[in-house]
Amino acid sequence: MKRALITGITGQDGPYLARLLLSKGYKVYGTYRRTSSPNFWRLQHLGILKKITLIPADLSDMSSLLEAVTVSNPDEIYNLAAQSFVGASFDQPLHTTEIDASGATRFLEIIRHLNKNIKFYQASTSELFGGAKECPQDERTPMMPNSPYAAAKLHAYHMTKIYRHSYGIFTCNGILFNHESPLRGLEFVTRKITNSVAKIKLGLQKELVLGNLDAKRDWGYAGDFVKMMWMMMQHDKPDDFVIATGETYSVGEFAEEAFKVVGLDWKKYVKSDQKLHRPMEVHQLCGDARKARDVLGWEAEIKFKELVKMMVESDLRLWKKFTSGENFPWDAPSFPHGMDVIARNVTRDAKREAAAIGGKKLAGKKKKSTWKKLLKG
Ligand code: NAP
Ligand code: GDD
Questions:
Q1: Distance from the CA of 8 to the center of ligand 1, in angstroms?
Q2: C-alpha dihedral over 97, 181, 298, 178, to 10 degrees?
Q3: Which of 251, 254, 275, 285 to mutate to test the pocket of ligand 2 (most atoms within 8 A of CB)?
Q4: Which distant-in-sequence residues (6+ apart) come within 8 Å of 61 by Cβ?
Q5: What CATH number labels 3-185+221-248+286-302?
């Protein structure tokens, strides 16, 4: 049975990837970080929370990452964890660098020292092309980051390549263009729009205030894009791939389409506020994923209109449930019954613990336990 470690499993992409890997027979481990209100609702939403094993780890904390790799003993690491909000990276550039740049290097160092056979996937991004003059962008387009987020991701992108070429480690960069879903975080523009459209339709909100309506993005569906993460890790050689739909639409066009789904005219509800514009904008992204198609046979299945409809309808369902007295999924109870969580504990024997969950080879190298497997609930 193959074993995978997914960082950032509580985010949008993590649960879709975990579900895919489970369907392929993987043993799936995921890292989550300690928060005052645990957010496992996406994993619950896809019905996979109890099928995976969770390990607490923070990308800023080397020892927690080392332990996560040791205890999960993975064949493949998918590094999805990040401070992923471009806007916030202008407010917290150092934190963003620490997590998005150095976080990836920490994993590469662990692999180099512990086991060079572990394959590594880095969640790279179309933001790397930020100020590119060319459109569409592909793997050969010069990278011109336009935000602290993109600059940090560019560092991780290069380190991923450097470890491939210097040490022969199987490392891949998935250069993913924007991908969305009903599980998208509410601060990203697509979900902000679809959530507001649902509320406006149900009379729970009056208007929608956005920033730059003219920015253009190549928006795909997260469920399609995670397939490509796995496909590039199964390829006979490590490589970097652009993943995109090849179509680009403006924020205004996304809003127009979303309001259309519920039969409303977007112009009556949407306002643009200069305060929501970014210090430096990425004006247009559109990907050319020809290499992914030709080499790996991947193509985006869900395109713009279908994606918008899926997201609006999902938010409508949620808000209708709310108005009839049901909780939101993000109100899920902390540590729901039956979760498989591995937590730190200094009293147990590491070898036995890791062997019990399949980490024989690496556990043998450790003397003292720092792990205890807890079955919560
Ligand atoms: P997301 O929804 O924002 O999820 C990010 C994940 O990272 C969450 O699980 C988050 O944990 C975790 N995380 C944040 N800081 C961490 C830290 N210090 N230590 C450990 N974990 C931490 O992002 P996503 O949309 O799933 O994207 C996945 C990856 O792909 C990210 O690296 C993103 O930058 C990249 N990417 C995304 C897109 C896109 O359009 N979605 C496109 C290109 C690249 P919490 O849940 O606790 O916050
Ligand atoms: N978030 C947000 N909120 N963005 C807005 C708003 C608003 O109210 N109004 C306009 N926008 C514009 C932003 O200025 C940006 O040009 C565009 O909408 C998309 O913003 P986001 O949805 O926040 O996504 P992003 O493109 O900046 O970043 C996402 O995609 C990247 C890949 O290209 C994130 O998922 C990144 O992690 C990812 O790397």
A1: 6
A2: -40
A3: 251
A4: none
A5: 3.40.50.720
Decide if pLDDT at 76 tops 70.
yes
Query: For residue range 84-117, what is the model confidence (pLDDT) as tens digits?
Result: 999 999 999 999 999 999 999 999 999 999 999 9
Q: Are 184 and 222 in contact (CB under 8 A)?
A: yes
* 227 Cβ neighbours under 8 A, 6+ residues apart: 20, 298
331 residue type, one letter = D
82 C-alpha vs ligand 1 centroid, how far in Å?
A: 4
* Ligand 2 centroid – CA 179 distance (Å): 11
Q: How far is CA 296 from the centre of its chain?
A: 21
Instruction: Determine the average pLDDT of the residues in 282-306.
Output: 97
Spatial distance between the Cα atoms of 272 and 211, rounded to a whole number of angstroms: 5
Tokens of 220: 């795909």
Distance CA 211, CA 195 (A): 16
Task: Quick: pLDDT tens for 340-361.
Answer: 877 544 334 444 444 444 444 4
Give me the sign of the Cα torsion angle 188, 191, 196, 197.
Answer: positive
Q: Name the band, by pLDDT with cuts 50, 70 and 90, for residue 373.
A: very low
**Residues classed as catalytic:** 125, 127, 149
**Which protein residue's CA is at the shortest distance from atom 1 of ligand 1?**
11
Contacts of 163 (CB under 8 A, 6+ apart): 108, 111, 112, 120, 169, 171
For 164-174, what is the mean pLDDT?
A: 98
Query: What are the phi and psi torsion angles at 361 (to 5°)?
Result: -60, -50
The token pair that represents 290 in the structure block: 């020809």
Task: Say if CB 218 and CB 177 are below 8 A apart.
Answer: yes
**Mean pLDDT calculated for residue range 235-241:** 98
* Per-residue pLDDT tens over the stretch 288-298: 999 999 999 99
Q: How confident is the model at residue 362 (pLDDT cuts 50, 70, 90)?
A: very low
pTM over 0.90: yes
The Cα 148–Cα 86 span in angstroms is 8
Question: pLDDT at residue 376 above 60?
Answer: no
User: Is the CB–ligand 1 distance for residue 302 below 6 Å?
Assistant: no
